[in-house]
Structures are given as structure tokens and as C-alpha cells.
Amino acid sequence: MKHVHDRKILHRDIKCQNVFLTKQGIIKLGDFGIARVLRHTNEVSRSMVGTPYYLSPEIIEGRPYSFKSDIWSLGVMLYEMCALKPPFEGMNMHFLAMHIVRGKF
């Protein structure tokens, strides 16, 4: 993440399915299809993109977001790896979004 963020790239879709392990044991981040290159480190993005389980509260609320949203998604991914389930769930997108914004896991 640091390598990507140091190059002012916002990945915007951090999830387990986009992390790969090579035969040599090297971890690689893939699928930069919706990534965005920022002009400077304090620039923000506004479009709502990403996989619902991994969306940060600011994306759900339609607020500007930046690198912190990638870090949020990384935390969700790490939780999922440890618990074998996502931290936030809901019967539909509305309830999932409510749980994420309220921090109810």
C-alpha cells in the first residue's frame, strides 16, 4: 500500500480477491482497473466505486475520500482473513451501508 500511495495512486478496490501470492511467497496487489492517480497527496476523490463490503464510511456517505479509504479497505480485508467473514454484513446494500457508517460489526 505504501508503495502505491507514495506514487499518489488511489487503488479504490482493496479486497482479498485482488491480492495475489506468487510461488516465491511475494504478495502482489492487482486489479488497478478503477484506480485513480492523484495530482498531489492531499487531493480527494468523490466517485462511489469499489466492492460494497470494503467501502469506507466516507464513500458510502458521498463525502470526499483519499488514501485513508484504501487503508479502511485493507483493515476490512485483514479482519476477513482472521475471522473468515467480513466485519460488516446486511440483508441488502442499505443495511450493509448503515452498519459500515455506524461501525456496527
Describe the fold and architecture:
34% of the residues lie in helices and 10% in strands. It is of the alpha+beta class and 105 residues long. It has one domain (2-102): Transferase(Phosphotransferase), domain 1 (Orthogonal Bundle). The strands form 2 sheets. It has a two-stranded antiparallel ribbon with strand order 1-4. A two-stranded antiparallel sheet has the order 2-3. Strand 2 and strand 3 form a beta hairpin. The protein is globular and about 40 Å long. The model has no long low-confidence stretch (mean pLDDT 86).
Question: How are the SSEs ordered, and which strands pair?
Answer:
Elements: H1 2-6, E1 9-10, E2 19-21, E3 27-29, E4 36-37, H2 57-60, H3 67-83, H4 93-102
Antiparallel strand pairs: 1-4, 2-3
Shape verdict: globular
The description of the largest β-sheet is:
2 strands, antiparallel
The H/E string reads: HEEEEHHH
End-to-end distance: 24 Å
How many structural domains in the coordinates?
1
Tally of helical runs: 4
Sheet-strand content, in percent, reads: 5-15%
**Percentage of residues assigned to helices:** 25-40%
Rg of Cα set: 14 Å
The tally of strands reads 4
CATH topology: Transferase(Phosphotransferase), domain 1
pLDDT averaged over residues: 86
Assign the CATH architecture. Answer: Orthogonal Bundle
Report the CATH superfamily: Transferase(Phosphotransferase) domain 1
Structural class: alpha+beta
- Low-pLDDT residue spans: none
Q: Report strand order across the widest sheet.
A: 1-4
| Highest-level CATH class | Mainly Alpha
